[in-house]
Specification:
By secondary structure, the protein is mainly alpha-helical. The protein has 11 helices and no strands. The chain starts with a helix and ends with a helix.
């Protein structure tokens, strides 16, 4: 990659980290930029996953206190998330470049749609969840649903948080704060597992990945510093509109 391309990718990563810290949807910024600078679609997705992976760690550590006394659930759902992430990664690497490039506009549009419905999903959760857990819910079935959601995370990842929150609200009766914390752990597990798997794929564009990782951390720190001063809803809808516009461009191409 040229110096100019690395600067463009780095700026996109800063923007992606900033958006992720405030509203989510950073993948809708970083992934198309990687393709725009000439990285093949599958390699761009792999690189994006590896580069943005560290950004999930800070949010997860910050919310672990909200899951105190629930180690068993963390292990079960974290393991299901990791396994799903690896399966999603395997599916991605076995998807041909031409096929994946055909899927790209649909995946971006899906991610934008998931980001758009995050607000209604959260409001539904607030009505749905409550203290205690229904006795008839079985751990294996709940873990399987988390596993299925995490496959999407390993394959593409945009909008994974919304899917996980919806799944967790369906199968658990917990406060929204605890569901959010558990969602962070699962998303981290899925992304880390997929990223580790991708390290040995030969598909990672390392120069871009290193620059993006640094940029995403900087953007995340900037986003955290202005939290409360930038309306997340406005930022989220800007990203949604961008995602829809990008998907339309890919459809036309």
């Amino acid at each position: 990659m040229t110096g100019v391309e690395l600067v463009v990718v780095g700026v996109a990563a800063v923007a992606g980290g900033f958006v992720n810290a405030l509203a989510g949807g950073g993948t809708l910024i970083t992934f198309p930029i990687l393709i725009a600078v000439g990285i093949p679609a599958v390699a761009a997705n792999v690189t994006n996953t590896v580069a943005l992976c560290p950004g999930y760690l800070g949010g997860t550590l910050a919310q672990l206190k909200d899951l105190s006394g629930n180690k068993q659930r963390l292990y079960v759902f974290g393991s299901a998330g990791a396994l799903g992430g690896v399966v999603g990664g395997i599916l991605l690497l076995n998807t041909g470049e031409k096929t994946f490039r055909t899927l790209v506009p649909y995946l971006i549009l899906l991610a934008a749609g998931l980001l758009a419905i995050e607000g209604p999903v959260r409001r539904w959760q607030e009505r749905r969840v409550g203290p205690g857990e229904a006795p008839h819910e079985r751990a294996l079935g709940k873990a399987f649903l988390v596993f299925l959601a995490s496959i999407y995370g390993g394959y593409f990842g945009g909008g994974l948080s919304v899917i996980l929150l919806a799944v967790l609200a369906l199968v658990l009766h917990e406060s929204l704060t605890r569901l959010n914390a558990l969602k962070q752990v699962i998303a981290l597990s899925a992304n880390v597992a997929a990223a580790i798997f991708f390290l040995f794929s030969g598909k990672v564009a390392w120069s871009a990945a290193v620059v993006m990782a640094i940029g995403a951390l900087i953007g995340g720190a900037l986003g955290g510093s202005v939290a409360g001063r930038v309306p997340p809803l406005v930022l989220r809808w800007i990203v949604v509109v961008m995602g829809v516009a990008i998907s339309i461009v890919y459809f036309i191409r």
